[in-house]
Amino acid sequence: MSALLHINENRVLQLLDWDKVFHVIEGALESVASNHVIQSARSVIDLKETNFMFVMPGKLRDDNGETLGCKIACHFPGNTTLPPLMANILLMDALTGELQAVIAATGITAWRTAAASAVATKYLHNENNKILAIIGAGAQGRIHAICLSYFFKFKEVRVWNRNRERAVRLVTELSNDSKWKCSFKACETVQSCLSDADVVVTTTGTDVSIVKLDWLKPSAHINAVGVGLDCREIDDEVYKAANVYIDHWDGAKEELKHLIDIGIQFKGQIGDLIRGSIKPPPKNSLTIFQSLGMAVEDCAVARMIYDLHMQNK
Ligand SMILES: NC(=O)C1=CN([C@@H]2O[C@H](COP(=O)(O)OP(=O)(O)OC[C@H]3O[C@@H](n4cnc5c(N)ncnc54)[C@H](OP(=O)(O)O)[C@@H]3O)[C@@H](O)[C@H]2O)C=CC1
Ligand SMILES: O=C([O-])C1=[NH+]CCC1
């Protein structure tokens, strides 16, 4: 038996590329709507003391053939030297089930989530994107600031974080990078961060609503990234006023019951918009992409990394 291939985090980060990840994620979202995937809502195990394990198996059929994989993600918020989210993907041969590689997936999780938001923004709000507001400067907040700055030409990118020092650190890091042509600003309050923002990203997962309808531009687009059964970072009134889109129905039925219970009717999956099987929202309307994250996004990026690694060994 050949030695098991392990593609570590450093190697994955070397191979990740925004245009390639965007393409693969756009395809994965579309495949969900075309029924070319097998996946279910993730299984979540409460490990107590605020730690969780997520298990996300999936199979995807796309231009590259069939891909079979399973991500195991451990969320240990108390980690100090290691990231709070530690993830790995087992990539299998889709014909035999034989394990092909173990691929570090902390970076993949961050990149594929931000790329899904970029795809959603392309289909829901691809014009007049001048101000981006990032709520939460953790791993997802940081990668969304980078990814959305890469794909959309914002004039200003604002960051709010509960612990302000962290927002200032992120803004300093981004301002020191000469490839960005926009200005970066750390905001004192959520309200001032949201004011007049065209695109908003929420990444706190907090159980208290911190994004209020009155603070939003009526035509804003929100990528709602925080996840969890108790996540309430966006006020119910915002959902009631918005056209809300999801990544996959199976996950939404399981993890978004609190929205279904207050009468929110999801307009459809982002993949349905990509396929053209549903109408886009009216121009200048408030829109939300409620992102949960999907196994097949992980499978698609893991497969891309595996192929790039094998080609460039
Ligand atoms: N949709 C998807 O596909 C994915 C979603 N996620 C979700 O995204 C969210 C962020 O993940 P990640 O960036 O990796 O986590 P991090 O631990 O890196 O960052 C967490 C962020 O949330 C903030 N925060 C936590 N609690 C509160 C609170 N009560 N009020 C205000 N801010 C708070 C933290 O602020 P502070 O610095 O002050 O502590 C920090 O900015 C989580 O809900 C996670 O489950 C993650 C991966 C994929
Ligand atoms: O999609 C994902 O990998 C996750 N969503 C919430 C925590 C991990």
UniProtKB/TrEMBL annotation:
Species the sequence originates in: Photinus pyralis (Common eastern firefly)
Protein name: Ketimine reductase mu-crystallin
Top EC category: oxidoreductase
Record-stated family: Belongs to the ornithine cyclodeaminase/mu-crystallin family.
Origin superkingdom: Eukaryota
Catalysed reaction equations from the record: (S)-cystathionine ketimine + NADH + 2 H(+) = (3R,5S)-2,3,5,6,7-pentahydro-1,4-thiazepine-3,5-dicarboxylate + NAD(+); (3R)-1,4-thiomorpholine-3-carboxylate + NADP(+) = 3,4-dehydrothiomorpholine-3-carboxylate + NADPH + 2 H(+); (3R)-1,4-thiomorpholine-3-carboxylate + NAD(+) = 3,4-dehydrothiomorpholine-3-carboxylate + NADH + 2 H(+); L-pipecolate + NADP(+) = Delta(1)-piperideine-2-carboxylate + NADPH + H(+)
EC number: 1.5.1.1, 1.5.1.25
Coiled coil stretches, renumbered: none
A molecular function (GO) term: pyrroline-2-carboxylate reductase activity
Gene Ontology annotations for the cellular component aspect, listed alphabetically: cytoplasm
Assembly: Homodimer. Binds the thyroid hormone triiodothyronine (T3); T3 binding inhibits enzymatic activity.
